Amino acid sequence: ITSNAHQATFGGDTDGIIVKISPQGSILYASYYGGSNFDRILTITIDINGNIYIGGDVNAWMFYHGEVGTMMVKKYDTDGNDIWTVIEDAAGNDFAGILKTMKYNAAGNIVIGAVGSSLACITTSGTVLWHTTGITNGILNFDIDPSGNIFVVSSGSFGIIPFISSDIVVSKFNSSGTLLWSHNYDFGNSEYASQIVCDNSGG
Known about the structure:
Blueprint: E1 16-21, E2 27-33, E3 38-46, E4 52-63, E5 66-76, E6 82-86, E7 98-104, E8 110-115, E9 119-122, E10 128-132, E11 141-144, E12 150-160, E13 163-173, E14 179-185
Antiparallel strand pairs: 1-2, 3-4, 4-5, 5-6, 7-8, 8-9, 9-10, 11-12, 12-13, 13-14
């Protein structure tokens, strides 16, 4: 941990660590992130100005084989100074789930998706523009096309008992978080998806 760290001491239980490395491999900045509970950094990105955005969860804990926590997005400047933290939407609702995917859209805002059913868009100044919840079949991964449409991939169970199988599900949302369509794809067996990529035509 460096002397210029935002958080120089371990918070407790489990914390994340942010490290900035020079092109020559030297550590420029290293800091803890977290409080006294189970806090994690699960994804990271930077903007064109070098500001750092981390995503993860706070106050997470293991319950049997489930994970419970509050989704979090935090912004640091290029020197590692804490700028803002977002853990809830404009209505004061927590972002439910485990944040695994965080990407920029065509407008330069940050779209976040949780393993579960939470999709949201946040400006680089920390304002939550929209928050969509209750997404059927949940979110495993998403990508954004050049027009800002969001394609979400997941898996769901389809068929009639006892002939139930898992199919790949793809859902399209517009840049405002409104569902446009959702389709399941059955290739004859049980299928599972973990990633989706859009091409330049939006497909």
